[in-house]
Amino acid sequence: MALSREQMAQRVARELQDGFYVNLGIGIPTLVANYIPDGMEVMLQSENGLLGMGAFPRKGEADADMINAGKQTVTARTGASIFSSAESFAMIRGGHIDLTVLGAFEVDVHGNIASWMIPGKLVKGMGGAMDLVAGAENIIVTMTHASKDGESKLLSRCSLPLTGAGCIKRVLTDLAYLEIEDGAFILKERAPGVSVEEIVSKTAGKLIVPDHVPEMQFA
Question: Using alpha carbons only, what angle is made at residue 87 by residues 81 and 90, rounded to the nearest 5 degrees?
């Protein structure tokens, strides 16, 4: 069974480490804020100028002026700071983010990512993703493994305009957790109840399958 958005966020949250500064992209990545392990100190950064995001506000507690880069209302934890987007991007470009979590349309075996444009569709621009993939050493991409039509999004070569080249090493889809190394996807974990055969059939790029691929575990 494919992972839900919440399960994907939970799995990504396991990659967090105490003291990390983390940027969460729009979509599934924003949900990671709700699953930071108890007792772990992590500072979440939003590229519109907020360091120290908390969980999403409860009903009736939202402040319309407190938003993330996706224009969702958020909370600020104790010790948070608010600053200009210029200072926020100086933090990103200066390599001060320990982990970036991004969504994507496509990723390929060379570590390329396409996440901002589908030709023929109206787009506002690349946004901060270009800076994030260029300024971060540690990136996790979250995405569906295949399109609604069943077409793989894990490719030999991205077909859409690139956001960044050779910058992605880890991908979490709704079916699997994979790493990218030496021009191939390496299958590390699979979603509960999802077979290796299904993952192979929905991966267009070169895929290396170890002898044992454990299922992800959720409480």
Answer: 125
The pTM score is 0.91
Q: Is 79 exposed, middle or buried (0-12, 13-18, 19+ CB in 10 A)?
A: exposed
The rounded distance, in Å, linking the Cα atoms of 86 and 71 is 18
Residues identified as active-site = 47
Tens-digit pLDDT profile for residues 128-158: 778 888 888 799 999 999 999 999 999 999 9
